[in-house]
Amino acid sequence: MSDQNVVAKFRLTAAKAQERIRQAATNSANVVITEHAEKRLQQRGLTTRDLRTILTDGYVDDPPDETESHDWKCKVTRTMPGGRIAGAITVIVAGGRLIVITAEWEDGK
């Protein structure tokens, strides 16, 4: 097979996903919080301000997974005041928007 017949599949890296999320989250109009995520924020004592901090200052450690609709799903984490690490499962969709699926404490408490 020649090199001309090989098509490189695009793969979003963790670093690039982190960059996209941080940039998009600077404008709250780019962030959609699902009903499920809103419930989980409340259950876990996190605010939408906490969520914004997670998105704008957090880290993506693992490469995102591509969804069936060709968006990118990953976890963003950040150490919060008090030392606990919070995470937000986030989907990066076309146009640079973010959909927050859920929020969680990484220690499971």
Describe this entry's structure for a reader.
The protein is α+β, with helices and mostly antiparallel strands and 109 residues long. It has one domain (11-105). Helix content is 28%, strand content 27%. It contains 3 helices and 5 strands. The chain has a 5-stranded mixed beta sheet. A hairpin with a 5-residue loop joins strand 4 and strand 5. The longest helix has 12 residues, at 14-25. The radius of gyration is 15 Å and the shape is globular.
Percent range for helical residues? Answer: 25-40%
What is the beta-strand fraction? 25-35%
Rg over CA atoms, rounded to whole Å, is 15 Å
Looking at how many chains there are and whether they match, the oligomeric state comes to single chain
Poorly predicted residue ranges = none
Q: Report the biggest beta sheet as strand number plus sense, adding barrel if it closes.
A: 5 strands, mixed
H/E element sequence: HEHHEEEE
Question: What structural class do the secondary elements suggest?
Answer: alpha+beta
User: What is the terminal-to-terminal distance?
Assistant: 53 Å
